UniProtKB/TrEMBL annotation:
Residue ranges annotated for the Calcineurin-like phosphoesterase domain, each copy included: 141-296
Signal sequence, start to end: none
GO molecular function annotations of the record: acid phosphatase activity; metal ion binding
Keyword hit for Methyltransferase: no
Taxonomic lineage of the native organism: Bacteria, Pseudomonadati, Bacteroidota, Flavobacteriia, Flavobacteriales
InterPro entries reported in the protein's UniProt record: Calcineurin-like_PHP (IPR004843), FN3_dom (IPR003961), Metallo-depent_PP-like (IPR029052), PAPs-like (IPR039331), PAPs_N (IPR015914), Purple_acid_Pase-like_N (IPR008963)
Annotated organism of origin: Salegentibacter salinarum
Designated name of the protein: Metallophosphoesterase
Purple acid phosphatase N-terminal domain: residues covered: 25-113
Record key words, sorted: Signal
SUPFAM superfamilies to which the protein is assigned, alphabetical: Metallo-dependent phosphatases, Purple acid phosphatase, N-terminal domain
Amino acid sequence: MKHLTLTIIFSFLTFYSIAKNSRYRIIITDDPSSTITIAWDQISGQNPRVYYGITDGGMYSSKYSLKKSPDRKVDYKGMNNHFVTLTKLNPDTNYYFIIKDSEGVSKRFWFKTAPKDNISMSFISGGDSRNNRVPRIEANKLVAKLKPTAVFFGGDMTNSGSEEEWIEWMDDWQHTIALDGRMFPILPARGNHERSNSSIYNLFNTPSKAVYYNIVFGKNLFSTYTLNSEIAAGGNQYAWLKKKIKNDKALWKFIQYHKPMRPHQSHKAEGNDEYNNWAELFYKNGVNLVSESDSHVVKTTYPIKPCNGGEDCDEGFVRDDQKGTVYVGEGCWGAPLRNNDDDKSWTKNSGSFNQFKWITVSRKEIKLQTIIVDKANQVCENSNSTKLVKLPFGVKVWENEGESIVIRNP
């Protein structure tokens, strides 16, 4: 009997042997209501496949209706990166998945596709996690608790871009996975500390090797542009952006990139290439919100537009409450903090602390709040079932005791 019991236990453990894969992330590379890319580090084992479906099959591959092998594999930054892009998914739907290889099965994870209709959605936007792992992990934990539709990350994930730092970053990103296995998609931009476009493309399989792309949420609710401030703002990137945004009929337009046009830190160089090529384009085409990083300070602006001179023109911008663009940033997801010592006449608020932006988007308005990311363990967790876009109890909001920045179309 004892031998039989040990045999049963051994068979159970063998059946549930854990696959040798890790460092999971999901990425939006196309229509977020129907497509998602699942990525991971395949440490060992052969022939991995993603088993998935709308029914939670736990760790039993036979209980999932669909499966797919990797579309792309690349050894990069000390990791064997595998990418599986799932298509033809249902909008606003929970999908459960496991990764099974020759050595075992991963934990069961799940994600929710974005809505196809123009219903309210929530987003997190920030950047510059760099080399301070404690605040980086705090911010990551809040992602799991706030449960956004997606995360916009403005670059400078690591300090030197070494294999060791990237592995640590991916390990820390696992804190964005909720306790029930829910994952939240990232849309990454390239920063100067990424050293090359390859870092972002090979680790996140972005739609463009040049790391600039457009993703639309809802039918036409929220059109988002990720630009690359580490290559020429003009040339091919400008031509692509000008054509794309001119024909963009979305209710709201949002743009993220790394290097700010007008940093709020005195030792940072002005982003004249970005200003000269993009500022007027943003204004003429009704861009509502821009998220910048790089300076390691906190800032929000009043709505502003480019100017060529005049009494109120300050560093090439002037306040325009009717049709101007709100610029926010500038980093602070764990990077070394700097002094916010270069405010402008159109600066609404500035500071120096670890933070990211919480953005809620509806048909009638965009609301934005700056979230202080320390003490994440004291923050409650949003429900997966709620249809309300909200912040959970315990979140620390910076602006004027929780007052939102509200953007409405004129």
